Amino acid sequence: MSISAEHLLSVVRQYWRSDHEFDGKLERSPELERFQTLWEEKLKKMDAWYVLMDELQAALPQFGIGNATATCDASFRCSVYTAREPIYSSQENESMTRRWVVVGCVSILAPVYMVYGVQYDFRGEERIADRVFFDPLPPEMRAPAEVVARKIEARFGVEAVPREIAETRIPLIVYPHEPPDTTLFHALFTAWPESVP
């Protein structure tokens, strides 16, 4: 498959709206109906996703592996976690730690995937900052990201979306994003890339 922003936009238009016509109504939009029907179909094949989790755990035993899938998003998501590590803090009484997560997403809307990273900073147990990284990832995220990408491609036969296409602005609403801030990434994968359980 040749990935183009135009083709992917034509696909996501079937599932996301460009207006607020159905906001506050009991009636669901045709786009939401299609989206929920598609999720019902995809969830019947969830076993393949769990097999991927097992494969990742075997390939990356030093990391925590999690399922970050949420049906409000348009993708299955997996996460590869590090343990928290101490970081510098100017306040001696506060414990500051950092962890990072590599996230693999497989869209339910098109045969495409993307891998990205998130860095979390904590003060005690409180998350005080997060930062999302797309290609190129920081060096410490690259090796596990390559494993995630290889496993996703082998298991699902999907193609990676290049960053420049994922960042294409689209005229659709993927809550909480509205034009001109909505991107193909939001529509194909998740509107909250920093939110990884």
UniProtKB/TrEMBL annotation:
Source organism, top-level taxon: Bacteria
This protein's name: Uncharacterized protein
Organism: Archangium lansingense
Lineage: Bacteria, Pseudomonadati, Myxococcota, Myxococcia, Myxococcales
